[in-house]
Amino acid sequence: MSEQEHNADVITIDGPSGSGKGTISRLLANKLHWHFLDSGALYRLVGLAARNHAIAFDDEEALATLAAHLDVEFGADEDADETHIFLEGEEVSSVIRSEEAGNDASRVAAVQAVRDALYQRQRAFLRPPGLIADGRDMGTVIFPDARLKIFLTASLEERARRRYKQLKEKGLNANLSALLDELAQRDARDKNRSAAPLVPAADAVSIDTSDLSIDAVVAEVYGRWQRIQQA
Ligand code: DC
Questions:
Q1: Is 102 in the pocket of ligand 1 (CB under 6 A)?
Q2: Which residues are annotated as a binding site for ATP?
Q3: Cα(107) to centroid of ligand 1, in Å?
Q4: At 131, phi and psi to the nearest 5?
Q5: Closest CA to 155 of 187, 126, 121
Q6: What is the fold of 3-226?
Q7: Where are the domains of the chain?
Q8: Is this prediction's pTM over 0.85?
């Protein structure tokens, strides 16, 4: 079903780790009173479930089965800064935010069968009045008909600094130079994989957030959405 048939609009926010996608998407969803899809969380959950069930990261068939049957629940507190996420009944909201979980996510996300298994689950987040979809392939694969597609970027150094600050604020371990290396590796894996690589959709608006405040980026995207509606 298309976005129009659902009577729900969608704004896609794609970009690399640390580009500000998560924060900006959440703020936009609150501002518009729309739903929010954190698609990266789904890949992080598949990675965690694979570890919990001792499934090897090169066992594509087992990973796809796991993704198709993932027992996950997103808390209904959509206004909160962080959604509570449960995997097989256990709260894993913080666990999936570690750098290790991000790397595991990036590895399982390179498996096309895993992406296929998560396709419908992501589409199901589209409900009236609208959806802010945060990820890597929201505008290219999951919601290609979106009327507004944003691609956020920022320099590697700035993204590493942001991740460092975020992790410290959460009381998690962080090392800036290790983060720089990990982000560079994750970028390379996400961009160079054959399955839905991280690329801007042809009709996406790119915004470099390196020197912009969060509020400025939110205002820019919100303004663009208002202009589209008025057109
Ligand atoms: O946005 P994030 O850091 O939570 O994403 C974790 C990993 O999941 C990221 O390195 C690549 C993958 N991912 C993806 O391939 N497609 C998405 N739509 C979202 C995330």
A1: yes
A2: 15-23
A3: 9
A4: -140, 135
A5: 187
A6: Rossmann fold (3.40.50)
A7: 3-226
A8: yes
